């Protein structure tokens, strides 16, 4: 046994990929999971005393923004990776809306170089653009992007409006066997909108984005998926109508998957007008609650949770979207949309487990094996031989979100000050600690 | 400072207002949703005193002498700005006015930085207009200086709401059981929204009348959630006008046709113009109001705008009086 081996003792091991939920030990050697079982021993190994902790595969995020190159004041690959590690993530897919965007092999190579050099402990998988410059006019060189290591294609917040162009992109993606990761938004219908089109937008005098702006595009993309045979992944869906469309598409055997964010599962559009610290004002226009797609209604949350329980929703993605303070300290409609989410995702999601909305195994499935399957990636499991990407979780530990402690440069979150129950206490990537909380007992 | 020494009512009538100034609890005036009935009545009572000042030959009183009031307009405005500036001057304050076209905003300065600069210059009150809904709320969260919202996006225009209700009350007395109609582009109207809140204390009915494309889809649910039971929505102006006491058309902006919200001006006029024939459906003594600026021949006919039932000019005069009352309460009373 080598010195750098790790032995996790007395944990509750949850590995949905292997159908495992039992107490025991995990032995890690040379960055690989060697064995899972009871009463394991290894001389010379570093021992993690994990009684009371959950051990599961490291989380896999299908949707985050690392901002580099171009927006290093918001986040860098290094700072984003540190925040991801603290959030339990060992693999993250970064969106291509950088400057320049990830629309050619050179830029993708640049990101991969930085990632290898400055964030070696997190697996960073770039998502390539669908169109050049994300301008929705002509396709990016998709085969070249695939060759450079992109794991899927997306123009994210600037979705391709042209159905013809999107069908061409999907044909290419199908041949490359990579998913098209779509932010589904009919830009014509959502034009000028800044929050959910509902009673709160009427109250605040802010133009709304109707649920139909998402649903029409989900429906179109499903039709194009049927046409082309491509793998469609609808990212950060937010409405009950989207859940229904995707449920039906899956029933008819189409290769459609989707994810949802922690905040679309927990916050509603009412949150926009109720800031936590708004002295002197009865009403708030909380720019921290400005996200795209917008926070929806409690009925939508119920539908999203049903979608998670019945498997319609495959994954939970952070949509980690760090911004500077100035990006948010402005008029609501001028505020940059997005939430810095890596470091709160698990705690926020555990609130849904603690209140019985869905169980822990379902949550871990959505954070590990399901996103791995969408990526056709071998990670997301604790089976022997797998890369030792592991999260250690204390699901009962209470803590208070304080953005001043964030490892992310982005301190933009409506969860600041929230008391959460459930914390990532360690993240192990390839057998090495990517993050370690002070409470972790090691000998 | 007590009102008996320096207050405007005292200066004109030699009496204290019946309502106590202790009722006033606003540091900012952002919208009418947080105005109690008593506060609204207090504004109106003080505004009555101001009307008397406005009737004088020499209109200047020393009430706010030594105070500095800034108007900061991030959006073009003529009448609201003039009304506020005159109100400030009649009360003896010093005023400065900044507009975004000439200020550092065009050099990329943020909203908060612009306003913080004014605060550092020791301005007492900032009167602010901004094209983004909620901008004064963001300002109020980050500033100690009092903010008066002179219109924010599609959200609120509290001084306009107050002057509208003040004008109704001066004409009709008790508004209980009265029926007012606001007709037109409710979707984009901060005037309509502030009137929705302001009228809720007075036992009157308010009908919002517009084609469906000019109403926010969430409006019915908003009225229900906010318990604004005095407000109803009606798509037909002919039906809405039955037994109406007051009708207030809103300006129809040309952009609305360009963006397709109405099919043509002709169709809009056929359905929604306030004109003589249509007013025959209302009460014979129906009153006509308009927040201005008007598009004569579009939402309102010339005959109605300048007819005997029109209160439009009184609204303008009352607007100065109501804004004087607000400035008195905000800049003159707040440090008592």
List the helices and strands and how they pair.
The complex is a heterodimer of chains A (443) and B (336).
Chain A lengths: L5 E10 L4 E10 L2 E6 L8 E4 L4 E4 L1 E6 L12 H10 L2 E6 L10 H14 L4 E4 L15 H6 L15 H14 L3 E4 L3 H4 L4 E2 L2 H6 L3 E2 L1 H18 L3 E4 L4 H12 L4 E5 L1 H5 L31 H12 L5 E2 L8 H4 L16 H10 L5 H8 L1 H6 L15 E11 L18 E11 L2 E5 L4 E2 L1
Parallel strand pairs in A: 1-4, 1-5, 6-7, 7-8, 9-12, 10-11, 12-13, 13-14
Antiparallel strand pairs in A: 1-2, 2-3, 4-18, 5-15, 15-16, 16-17
Helix pairs in contact in A: 4-7, 7-8, 8-10
Chain B lengths: L2 H4 L1 H6 L23 H18 L13 E6 L5 H12 L3 E6 L11 H10 L4 E6 L4 H8 L3 E7 L5 H15 L6 E5 L6 H9 L6 E5 L9 H7 L5 E4 L2 H4 L5 E4 L4 H5 L6 H8 L3 H4 L7 E2 L13 H4 L6 H21 L4
Parallel strand pairs in B: 1-2, 1-3, 3-4, 5-6, 5-8, 6-7, 8-9
Helix pairs in contact in B: 3-15, 4-15, 5-6, 7-8, 7-15
Descriptive overview:
- The complex is a heterodimer of chains A (443) and B (336).
- Chain A has 443 residues and is an alpha/beta fold.
- Chain A folds into 2 domains: 6-54 and 388-442, Urease, subunit C, domain 1, CATH 2.30.40.10; 59-374, Alpha-Beta Barrel (TIM Barrel).
- Chain A has helices spanning 77-86, 105-118, 142-147, 163-176, 187-190, 199-204, 211-228, 240-251, 262-266, 298-309, 325-328, 345-354, 360-367, 369-374; strands spanning 6-15, 20-29, 32-37, 46-49, 54-57, 59-64, 89-94, 123-126, 180-183, 195-196, 208-209, 232-235, 256-260, 315-316, 390-400, 419-429, 432-436, 441-442.
- In chain A, the strands form 4 sheets. In chain A, strands 1, 2, 3, 4, 5, 15, 16, 17 and 18 form a 9-stranded mixed beta sheet that branches. A 4-stranded parallel beta sheet of chain A has the order 9-12-13-14.
- In chain A, helix 4 (163-176) crosses helix 7 (211-228) and helix 8 (240-251) packs parallel to helix 10 (298-309).
- The relative contact order of chain A is 0.17.
- The model of chain A has no long low-confidence stretch (mean pLDDT 96).
- A 5-stranded parallel beta sheet of chain B has the order 7-6-5-8-9. In chain B, strands 2-1-3-4 form a 4-stranded parallel beta sheet, with helices on both faces.
- Chain B has helices at 3-6, 8-13, 37-54, 79-90, 111-120, 135-142, 158-172, 190-198, 219-225, 237-240, 254-258, 265-272, 276-279, 302-305, 312-332; strands at residues 68-73, 94-99, 125-130, 146-152, 179-183, 205-209, 231-234, 246-249, 287-288.
- Chain B has 336 residues and is an alpha/beta fold.
- Chain B is 40% helix and 13% strand.
- Chain B has 2 domains: 3-153 and 317-332, 3-Layer(aba) Sandwich (Rossmann fold); 158-305, Rossmann fold (3-Layer(aba) Sandwich), CATH 3.40.50.
- Mean pLDDT of chain B is 91; it is low at 1-15.
- Chain B is built from 15 helices and 9 strands.
- The A-B interface holds A 197-208, 210, 275, 277-285, 287, 326, 329-334 and B 27-28, 30-31, 33-34, 110-112, 130, 132-135, 137-138, 140-142, 152-156, 190, 193, 216-219, 221-222, 224-226.
């Amino acid at each position: 046994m080598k010195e750098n081996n790790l032995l996790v003792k007395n944990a509750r091991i949850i590995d949905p990929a292997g159908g495992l939920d039992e107490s025991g030990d995990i032995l890690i050697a040379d960055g690989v999971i060697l064995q899972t079982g009871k009463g394991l021993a290894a001389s010379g190994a570093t021992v993690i005393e994990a009684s009371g902790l959950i051990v599961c595969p490291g989380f896999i995020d299908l949707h985050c923004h690392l901002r580099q190159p171009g927006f290093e004041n918001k986040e860098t690959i290094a700072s984003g990776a540190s925040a991801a590690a603290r959030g339990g993530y060992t693999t993250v897919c970064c969106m291509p809306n950088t400057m320049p965007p990830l629309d050619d092999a050179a830029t993708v190579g640049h990101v991969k170089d930085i990632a290898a050099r400055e964030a070696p402990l997190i697996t960073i998988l770039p998502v390539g653009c669908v169109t050049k410059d994300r301008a929705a006019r002509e396709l990016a060189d998709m085969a070249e992007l695939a060759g450079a290591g992109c794991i899927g294609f997306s123009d994210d917040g600037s979705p391709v409006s042209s159905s013809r162009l999107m069908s061409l992109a999907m044909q290419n993606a199908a041949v490359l066997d990579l998913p098209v990761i779509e932010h589904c938004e009919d830009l014509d219908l959502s034009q000028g909108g800044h929050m959910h089109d509902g009673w709160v937008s009427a109250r605040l005098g802010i133009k709304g984005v109707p649920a139909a702006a998402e649903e029409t595009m989900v429906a179109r993309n499903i039709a194009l998926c049927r046409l082309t045979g491509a793998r469609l992944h609808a990212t950060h869906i937010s409405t009950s109508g989207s859940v229904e469309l995707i449920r039906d598409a899956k029933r008819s055997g189409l290769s459609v998957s989707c994810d949802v964010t922690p905040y679309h599962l927990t916050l509603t559009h009412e949150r926009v007008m109720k800031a936590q610290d708004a002295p002197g004002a009865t009403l708030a226009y909380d720019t921290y609650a400005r996200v795209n797609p917008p926070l929806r209604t409690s009925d939508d949350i119920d539908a999203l949770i049903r979608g998670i329980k019945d498997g319609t929703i495959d994954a939970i993605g952070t949509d980690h979207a760090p911004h500077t303070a100035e990006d948010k300290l402005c008029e609501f409609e001028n505020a940059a949309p997005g939430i810095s989410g890596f470091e709160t995702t698990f705690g926020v999601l555990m609130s849904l487990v603690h209140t019985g909305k869905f169980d822990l195994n379902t949550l871990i499935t959505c954070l590990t094996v399901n996103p791995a399957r969408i990526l056709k990636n071998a990670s997301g499991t604790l089976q022997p031989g797998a890369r030792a990407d592991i999260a250690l979780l204390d699901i009962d530990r209470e803590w208070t979100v304080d953005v001043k402690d964030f490892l992310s440069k982005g301190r933009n979150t409506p969860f600041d000050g929230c008391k959460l129950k459930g914390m990532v206490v360690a993240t192990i990537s390839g057998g090495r600690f990517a993050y370690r909380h002070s409470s972790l007992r090691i000998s | 400072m007590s009102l008996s020494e320096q207050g405007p009512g005292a200066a004109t009538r030699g009496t204290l207002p019946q309502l106590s100034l202790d009722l006033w609890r606003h540091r900012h005036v952002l919208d009418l949703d947080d105005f109690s009935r008593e506060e609204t009545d207090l504004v109106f009572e003080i505004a009555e005193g101001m009307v008397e000042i406005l009737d004088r030959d020499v209109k200047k009183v020393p009430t706010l002498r030594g105070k500095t009031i800034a108007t900061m307009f991030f959006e073009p405005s003529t009448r609201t700005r003039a009304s506020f500036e005159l109100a400030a001057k009649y009360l003896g304050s010093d005023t400065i006015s900044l507009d975004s076209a000439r200020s550092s905003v065009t050099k990329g300065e943020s909203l908060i930085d612009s306003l913080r600069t004014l605060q550092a210059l020791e301005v007492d009150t900032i009167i602010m207009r901004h094209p983004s809904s909620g901008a004064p709320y963001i300002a109020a969260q980050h500033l100690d200086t009092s903010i008066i919202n002179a219109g924010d996006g599609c959200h609120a225009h509290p001084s306009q709401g107050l002057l509208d209700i003040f004008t109704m009350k001066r004409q009709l007395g008790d508004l209980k059981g009265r029926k007012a109609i606001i007709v037109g582009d409710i979707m984009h109207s901060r005037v309509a929204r502030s009137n929705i809140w302001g009228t809720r204390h007075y036992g009157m009915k308010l009908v919002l009348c517009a084609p469906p494309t000019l109403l926010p889809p969430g409006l019915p649910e908003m009225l229900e959630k906010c318990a604004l039971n005095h407000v109803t929505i009606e798509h037909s102006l002919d039906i809405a006008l039955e037994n109406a006491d007051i009708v207030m058309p809103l300006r129809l902006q040309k952009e609305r046709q360009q963006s397709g919200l109405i099919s043509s001006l002709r169709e809009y006029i056929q359905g929604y113009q306030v004109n003589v024939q249509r007013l025959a459906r209302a009460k014979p003594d129906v009153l006509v109001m308009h927040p201005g600026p008007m598009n004569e021949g579009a939402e309102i006919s010339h005959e109605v705008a300048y007819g005997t039932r029109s209160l439009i000019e009184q609204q303008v005069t009352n607007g100065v009086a109501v804004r004087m009352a607000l400035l008195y309460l905000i800049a003159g009373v707040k440090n008592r």
